[in-house]
Amino acid sequence: MSTVEVHKQITADEIAHTFEDEVPKGADLRGYAPEDWLALVIFWIMALSVFLQFFTRYVLNDSYAWTEEIATYCLIGVVFIGSAMCVRLSRHIQVDLVFRYLPHVPARLLSTVIDLIRIAFFGYAIKLVWQFIQIIGDERMTTIKFQKGFVYYAVLLGFVLMFARSIQIAVENWRRGYSILERPGAFDGTEG
Prior knowledge:
The chain is mainly α. Helices cover 67% and strands 0% of the residues. The protein contains 7 helices and no strands. It has helices spanning 12-21, 34-59, 66-88, 97-101, 104-136, 149-176, 185-188. Helix 2 runs antiparallel to helix 3, helix 3 (66-88) runs parallel beside helix 6 and helix 5 (104-136) runs antiparallel to helix 6 (149-176).
């Protein structure tokens, strides 16, 4: 058995024409939802704030104190609003090992109970965050004199979006007859 590789000689023109064969497709932005774009905007505000902090501290040797606080609060917004994206795409951590060994009816029942618990959890979290905003929302930030309520409203928005997306996912699971827990391969393309 020979291990010698055989390569066909091709010209530079042939190489150049390989790039012309396939027309690049345009960007498909249909898979993104409003929370994705909002999280992206907040992320870039955070990134610019961190860059400004780095630049003023290490280049100008006189850092702006407010950039660190803004970056921290932006990170909170990215986490909670980005979590709505994870709920919509069913990307949060989940254990589906038990579902491999359960018959269809108990697996379907357990998956429905999990959907209901998730909806109840996010609903309760909305209530708690709202109560928290009522208590502490008028406090001022440390370096800039905005109300901290702005940050907590971003958290509230994240939980409202997660609540709405969890209802949407539950309804889709009920209509479809299975969830990602029961048949993960149907969602990641590995199911034949």
